Protein 1
Amino acid sequence: MKLYTRPLYAPDTSIGKPRDPSMTTSATTPKFVARDVKVYYGDKPALHGIDIDILDKSVTAFIGPSGCGKSTFLRCLNRMNDTIPSARVEGTILLDGEDLNDRKVDPVVLRARVGMVFQKPNPFPKTIYENVAYGPKIHGLATSKEEMDHIVESSLKKASLWNEVSDRLHQQGTGLSGGQQQRLVIARAIAVGPEVILMDEPCSALDPIATAKIEELIDELRQQFCIVIVTHSMAQAARVSQKTAFFHLGNLVEVGNTEDIFTNPKDQRTQDYITGRFG
Amino acid sequence: MTGYLFLALIVFSVASFMFGRSLARRKAASQGVRGHSLPAFSGWFVAIWSFIPAALILFVLVVFGGRVENTIVQADVPAAVQQLPELNQGLFFQDVRATVNGGMASTTVYDGELKAAFDHKVAQAKSVDNTITLGAYALTLILALAGAAFAYSRLSPQFRARNSVERWVSAFLVACSVVAILTTLGIILSLLWESLRFFQSVSPLDFLFGTHWSPQIAMRADQVGSSGGFGAVPLFVGTFLIMIIAMCVAAPVGLYSAIYLSEYASPFMRAWIKPVLEILAGVPTVVYGFFAALVVGPSFREFFNWLGAFMPGTPMGEYLMNVQNQMALVAGVVMGIMLIPFVSSLSDDIINSVPQSLRDGSLAMGATRSETIKKVVLPAALPGISGAMLLAVSRAVGETMIVTMAAGLQAKATLNPLDTVTTVTVQIVTLLTGDQEFDSPKTLAAFGLGLTLFAVTLALNLIAQRIVQKYQEQYD
């Protein structure tokens, strides 16, 4: 089933432009289709063949004990593993039907479509405005100051940060609290108009209140984006996601509706993990 | 003799250590308890008390004994000696000291009353020497024994030898750092003192703002060129010019190679390039100096002469045809090459300390590697890099060997890189090499230059350190 696809090959002029209205995907359309994905760090295998479909307009959570490969797989989805010299990826991952490991694919264009938020908030040492404007600027998404102002404002609004920072856009982004920084980073990712947002344990460095705000935000963003979140907190996975995938020792053990995984897991290992027998 | 006594003291202290250790062990065993400190600490405690007070006395004897002796011997000057000129009086006492301590006496022959005075003083010096030495030896022995006895008497299982040794250790470490601080202070004070003497004969304003440098002082008033000029401006202009040329070479090359090494190089390339750069850093500056004088200088001269040959008849061509080996450009370029590894390894460290998460954040937004470096990594590293550049500047300003060999000696306030210039450090070298007397403005000028140079590099280093510190606080 191949729906509307945007070319992954550079130059891609459609980045950041409003999406084609005919491009109606829904929570039943797979955004990513991964088949037999293997990752090696040097000679050491980290993932032993992952098969998964990740749906658009929904939140998919990756859970599993530390070192199980969930972050590694997440980084395959926007080819961030390219930045690790020893990493090697095999298998196919289709984004809207196109293989993103194809040699012709420009990872720079891919990453503009598949944004990422990291474990530790990593705002650049620039002002709040410059942080959000960074992506639009390098991709040339705004032709005037007004347009840029508009992108910054709408991105900060989407990340529910606008009300808190609208009066201090030109102060350092690093001066915000941890939770605000993480939302700033999300706004920064939204500003380039991605289709997917990958989140690698986005709340692990935050307090419960900031975490609750981010979770609320994730739930809102689900209306527009395909979201994949890696989390150590099973409660968080249960709260925010519609689909949950359980990874263990480099294997995808089980994937399904979040409700089913937490109430009625099919695999003994999943059962053990969610009941806290190992972790 | 003093040496043997010192050896004996060491042996005694080692023995005290072993005895103190076993005593502590026996005392604890006899009371059937575990001591507060391990027996070895009791041993150390006794050894320290046996060694340090006694060793201090020996140290004082070696350093000040001779001086005390001289003061006593020279307290009353015999009448016969008093009639001698002051210079010969000094010589007289020098000969006395030489005779007593077995050194080389001068060839002066003393006879008559002088002979009697000489013999008398030699005898007096001998007895004073004996008294001081024997007294010090006796004191040393007494202190060693008393210290050991005191320490033994303190030993008991309840005694906190461990804490006491800890205090001695910290006192020792403090003493070491005090030595470093005092040395620095001494250097600065002597620099200040001699500069003050210099500024008594040359006004500081003339020195700092004068534009004529020819540090010649005539022996006689009627000599040609009898008036010396001590205006340091040409020297500072020359230093500045060479520093600018050096930084024009070192800053871009060093910074870009650091960026390549930290951001682009594969581990294999890095493993090759880093050691090569470090070899460059290990080349002695005198080697760079003759490289500049014998290889770079002549080839630059040939190049410019060849260039000049294309413009015959024009003033430019004439000038280029007559360019000499020694020019600011050669010294600056070679100094820049010398600074490349310095700049690149400092910048490499600073770029590496920019958190990886910032790079990931930028790459994950679809930025290319060079965009990430230009817009995220370098701005984040900028304070540290400018600190590194300032450190390089202060090294360039203080560098001596290369400029001595390649820049020339003519003090000219010019910004023409093809001209010969001279720098502050070169002038210090030329002022002080050879036989010099240390009371003419000519030699004292070196201290004035040294002080000014010291002030400049100190200021540069302080600013650089402040910048680097501020940067480090941001990411720790």
Protein 2
Amino acid sequence: MTCCTPTTVIVSADAFRQPTPSAAEFRLASRSIGDGILQTEISVPSIHCGGCINKIERGLAKLDGVQNVRVNLSSKRLALRWLDQGTPPDAIGALKQLGYDGHLFDPTEAATPDGELPRMLRALAVAAFASMNIMSLSVSVWAGAEGSTRNILHWICASIALPALIYSGRLFYQSAWRALRYGQTNMDVPISIGIAAAFALSLYDTYHGYEHAYFDAATSLVFFLLIGRTLDYVMRERTRTAVKGLAQLSPRGAMTINADGEYDYLALKQIRPGTRLLITAGERVPVDCAVERGISDIDFSLVTGESAPRPVESGAALQAGTLNITGSLVVVATAVADDSFLAEMIRLMEAAESGKSVYRHIADRASRLYAPAVHLTSLLSFVGWMIFQGDVHQAATVAIAVLIITCPCALGLAVPMVQVMAARRLFESRIMVKDGSAMERLNEIDTVVFDKTGTLTLGQMQVTNIDEIDPRALSMAAELASHSRHPSARAIHAAAPHAAAHSGSHFDQVQEFPGLGLEGISQGKVYRLGRAAFARKDDGVQIPAETVFSCDGRKLASFVLSDRLRPGAHSLVEKLRQAGIVMEIISGDSEPAVREIADQLGIPNYTAGILPGGKLERIRMLTKQGRKVLMVGDGLNDAPALMAAHVSMAPATAADVGRNNADFVFLQDSLETVFLAYRIARDAGKLIRQNFVIAIGYNVVALPVAILGHATPFVAAIAMSLSSIVVVVNALRLKGEPMQGKTKPLGFKLPLEGVAK
Amino acid sequence: MSDFFYLIPISLALGLAGLVLFLWSLKNGQYEDLDGASERILYDDDMPSQ
């Protein structure tokens, strides 16, 4: 690397590869675990079998300084421990040689100990132990144990139940208490009251040597409900891990140039306004800055939504997150990372979030009706028995039996089971869903707002007039184009991928002129590919937007390039239209580019040249009109709109903030997955309603039995288990993607992967 | 009838042992990579990590 920025850069076809992180960045992503050993987490999304584990662990173990490599197949991540001897091992390079793409995982996120899941699993294990042992002891009571034997058994049950209920039931009591403190109710309020009442009554009866005790009902209730909670949590955790494992787009630091012209790689936080930075071709701009020296093309697509790259030279302002494509630039930072364009987006997002009404889960809405109904019934049966019989104990027993038997065991499982199944189906189709409420909200949408660049389109250029171009000129142009990573050059190269083999020509010397184009010399002739003004020296009409291939200044071919639609875009629009959903495009790109895409897809409503704040305003306006909007977008500029929308979706290629805050993230290129997600959410909504009907139907049958005083602990245990099983089985009916010759795993597997330490 | 007095403690102790074993294995990271564990068994040169 030299201290001056060259105006022309000679690049090879290697420039296509993603830049590997430098040693300094690698070190920055590591954390010390003592004894001079550092641990680095690397996310490798393409790990898929035992062979991969074996290959990677053996391959990396050979590297200098590597102490230990451990691949985690479930989270598709590997932990590398290496001895600090100055330079870190080139693990990413070694992985590339083995055929895997790896990227560094943020150490702060990797190191965060997440105690929630183990805590839930411990509570679940304790509840399982308690409920099974109490059940086995209760069997002897049901079988006819009497007198002191029954009493001893009841006392043993009580001594197991008390610690288990306190330990495992905490989750429910805490949540119920939080809701009550804010004057609300949720599902956990009737659950907590039911558990407490059942235990208190059973203890009283045991003390007085009465026949019935409900310890088994209380503990198995906690056990069943914890299963639902844990699955729900595992589902969200799994998505979080998967989304975090995607390549981080924003850089962790930048190469700085100090006053003596020395280079130093610094973390993002250490960059101050006024710091001079070197940004080489292929790097993203880390902070807002102004170009001091150099010429290049900058891809603004993730920031403003513009599809065509813009040439820049000294004096131009660059926002954080833009991508430098062709030349090296020396820039001066104008803001610290926290004040950059990104930070402004985050402020807009926070504003959008605070303006949004809190969504109430369907289960909580159900419990708002359910809890008063149950408590009223229980009270009425107490009063009824007092009037007709006058025995306080008998009346209390019946009232509590009513509480226990109606305790929303099936209701507590009805929603999470379906949502866990739906999340699993979505996961199989490579769609990540953030939480259960996202699916409930997706089920309600009536409007979809799309961003254009990177969402409806792939953000990749494509040659559209390929038929008009002389094949020989095309293959030569393609070969020349293979030396640049400019999107237009890539598109021309992609139009004739085997060009080099067919043309027989070879360019001896290729130079890239950032902002202008490429020049190559072959058999004494000078070939140029790039802007018309650069490539053409003849007198033909010059159209500024076209890309020209020329020989010694004579035009050989001109290429018309346009952004490529994502596969499945047409069929998505068609299916959404059939489902009666209104569609709209809001883009930051220029009017003609947006109109072209809108016309191709047949979406009449579109707005072009919109600023991030404008997108947010549009979503807010639609929301005010009572519409439920699904926002699909990828850019930094979409992030506030994603936040404000009723529900949001982003492709895996989206900017980090947008992706981390979207409700759904889809990893496939095809847009059809958007409709698949909608369909699964709709099916899940249907199953949830069915499950509610089943749970309510069960109560209709069981309630009279309880009110009449026939709900013995035995009847309660059978009824509760049965209703739970029916609800779970119903949830398992949820179908995923239609089978397309792919083998699906049989049976239901607990998605326990990614359990934190 | 007197069997009762040692059979119940035995059954509870066995259950408790199972519970403790599960908690131990959870803490020990045995559930961190379930997919990987099922694949690793196919490669017999896999050495336990130090």
